[in-house]
Design goal:
Blueprint: E1 13-16, E2 19-22, H1 33-37, E3 40-48, E4 51-53, H2 55-68, H3 77-90, E5 97-104, E6 123-130, E7 141-145, H4 166-177, E8 182-186, E9 192-195, E10 199-204, E11 207-210, H5 220-232, E12 236-238, H6 243-247, E13 251-256, E14 260-267, E15 270-271, H7 281-295, E16 296-297
Parallel strand pairs: 7-8, 7-14, 11-12
Antiparallel strand pairs: 1-2, 1-6, 3-4, 3-5, 4-16, 5-6, 8-9, 10-11, 10-13, 13-14, 14-15
Helix pairs in contact: 5-7
Bound molecules: 4'-deoxy-4'-aminopyridoxal-5'-phosphate.
Length: 299
């Protein structure tokens, strides 16, 4: 599904470094590390009427990513929260908003890879946009398997939520060309890793499976689904999953802040049919919706 421009986003105010700017004025320097080398980390958060869903977990991951990347002068957590609050309040936003939070290594004194050229601290960017969940969660989506592999820790650890998204973008291009909604990416060994922008789960005879988070992002929504399965008494197994297992699963769904929980009904032309008749995906989707208010942090 191709997202469309939402006219409500025409006049949004965007936070860059320490101030708010009108959409057309919000800019980073051409010497910023994100321009020079994709040298930045990011989070996608969603605003519900009760607040920001699992904001604490997103900020933990942002801080961990920045630490792993050896960023210097990372804004303290309270300052980041204040900046998010100011941005939401200035835009008078209350719900159906997606926030793209980016922390770049900052501006360099001259072009180059060396982080010692970054001498003015990191740069926080907060882009709040009206954006309902992006997938067709009612009817489900169609995916194809990409030939582009998801990074392993040998190459670029997926535990860092970084801005080097080229392999995922190349996978998404393959899915676009094939007329699908998203690309399924495999790991180095040919096991299922995740989709280009979401994590993946399957169920078979009432047991839910998801790949180990070795070659996929340790998604916040993924973590919540694992917790909810345990709370609901649904058996949850993390394992290597082959394409054949996914093709023949009873139910398959993907998870992420952008789309919440989305059924997948077609993978490489294989239609996902519930042979056992045992449904767990619906229970997890309902549990997710029920839990949103309690997991939101008022801001
Ligand atoms: N995988 C990838 C590659 C992603 O970019 C995202 C979204 N940031 C996810 C999974 C979903 O993660 P989360 O549930 O934390 O939004």
């Amino acid at each position: 599904m191709l997202q469309k421009f939402d006219p409500r986003n025409k006049d949004i105010l965007i936070w860059v470094k320490d101030s708010l700017y009108a959409r057309n004025e919000a800019k980073v320097s051409v010497f910023d590390s994100v321009v020079q080398g994709g040298d930045a980390v990011w989070e996608g958060l969603r605003l519900y009427p009760e607040g920001l869903l699992m904001m604490d977990r997103h900020l933990d991951r942002l801080m961990d990513s920045a630490k792993a990347m050896h960023f210097e002068h990372i804004p303290p957590r309270d300052e980041i929260i204040d900046a998010i609050r100011s941005t939401i309040q200035a835009n008078e936003m209350t719900k159906n908003v997606h926030i793209r939070l980016t922390l770049t290594r900052g501006e360099k004194i001259t072009s180059g890879m060396d982080p010692r050229l970054n001498q003015s601290g990191s740069c926080l960017i907060i882009v709040p946009e009206y954006k309902p969940p992006v997938y067709d969660n009612e009817n489900g989506i169609k995916v194809i398997t990409s030939s582009i592999r998801r990074n392993s820790p040998n190459h670029l650890d997926s535990k860092i939520h970084h801005n080097n998204l080229i392999n995922n973008i190349l996978a998404k291009i393959q899915s676009n060309v094939a007329g699908a909604d998203a690309a399924l990416m495999l790991d180095l060994y040919g096991y299922v890793a995740e989709l280009n922008g979401t994590n993946i789960f399957m169920s078979r005879k009432g047991v839910v499976y998801t790949p180990h988070a070795d070659a996929c992002l340790h998604g916040i929504t993924r973590g919540l689904v694992i917790e909810m399965a345990e709370e609901l008494g649904v058996k949850m197994v993390k394992k290597n999953i082959s394409l054949t297992e996914i093709y023949t699963a009873d139910e398959v769904f993907c998870t992420g802040t952008m789309g919440e929980l989305t059924p997948i009904n077609n993978i490489d032309g294989r239609i996902i049919e519930n042979k056992s008749g045992i449904k767990v995906m619906e229970d997890l989707i309902n549990a997710f919706e029920d839990r949103i208010p309690n997991l939101c942090i008022a801001i």
